[in-house]
C-alpha cells in the first residue's frame, strides 16, 4: 500500500510585479467607483423601470472613465487570483476601502461618520495581518507506490 501525502505547502509567491498588481487592484476599484458616483450625481436619479436612462448614462465621461477603471480592476484581480489564494487577494484588496473613504471625503465632499472611520481602521488592521501570511497554498500530488498503480491499471 502506498501512502498519500496531501499536506498543504504554504509559500510566498510575491514579487515586486505581483505587489504592483495588487496595488492596481487596490487603486482602480475605488477610483472607478468614485468616478461612477461622480457621473451618477451629475445625471441624477435613474429608475430600473426606464432602462434607457441607464444606457444614456454610459455617455457621461465620468462614467466611461469609471467603467474603464473597473475593467482594469477586474483584469488585475483575475491575474492576482491566478498566483495567490483568494483569502490573500481579497483582504489585500480591502485596502481600497481606505482609498475609497479618502476619495469620498476629500474629493466628493461626503461626510464619513466616526463609526465608519473605526470600521476602516479595523479593515486596515486586518489587511496588515493577512499581508504577513503566505500568499499561496499548494497541495502536493499524491504519492503512490508502483504496486498500487499496477492495481489501478489492471
Helix-strand layout with pairing:
Elements (H helix, E strand, L loop, with lengths): L7 E4 L4 H28 L7 H7 L3 H21 L4 H8 L2 H11 L7 H19 L3 E4 L6 H8 L1
Give a nutshell description of this structure:
With 154 residues, the protein is mostly helical. It has one domain. 66% of the residues lie in helices and 5% in strands.
Characterize the structure shown.
The chain has 154 residues and is mainly alpha-helical. It has one domain. It contains 7 helices and 2 strands, in the order βααααααβα. It has helices at 16-43, 51-57, 61-81, 86-93, 96-106, 114-132, 146-153; strands at 8-11, 136-139. The longest helix has 28 residues, at 16-43. The chain is globular and about 55 Å long.
Amino acid at each position: 500500500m502506498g501512502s498519500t501525502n496531501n499536506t498543504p505547502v504554504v509559500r510566498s509567491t510575491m514579487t515586486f510585479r505581483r505587489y504592483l498588481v495588487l496595488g492596481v487592484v487596490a487603486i482602480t476599484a475605488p477610483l472607478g467607483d468614485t468616478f461612477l458616483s461622480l457621473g451618477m450625481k451629475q445625471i441624477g436619479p435613474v429608475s430600473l423601470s426606464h432602462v434607457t436612462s441607464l444606457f444614456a448614462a454610459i455617455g457621461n465621461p465620468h462614467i466611461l472613465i469609471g467603467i474603464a477603471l473597473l475593467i482594469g480592476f477586474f483584469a488585475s484581480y483575475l491575474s492576482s487570483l491566478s498566483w495567490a489564494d483568494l483569502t490573500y487577494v481579497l483582504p489585500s484588496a480591502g485596502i481600497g476601502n481606505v482609498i475609497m473613504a479618502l476619495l469620498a471625503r476629500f474629493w466628493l465632499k461626503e461626510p464619513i461618520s466616526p463609526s465608519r472611520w473605526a470600521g476602516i481602521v479595523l479593515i486596515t488592521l486586518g489587511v496588515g495581518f493577512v499581508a504577513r501570511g503566505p500568499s499561496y497554498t499548494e497541495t502536493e500530488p499524491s504519492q503512490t507506490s508502483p504496486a498500487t498503480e499496477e492495481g489501478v491499471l489492471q
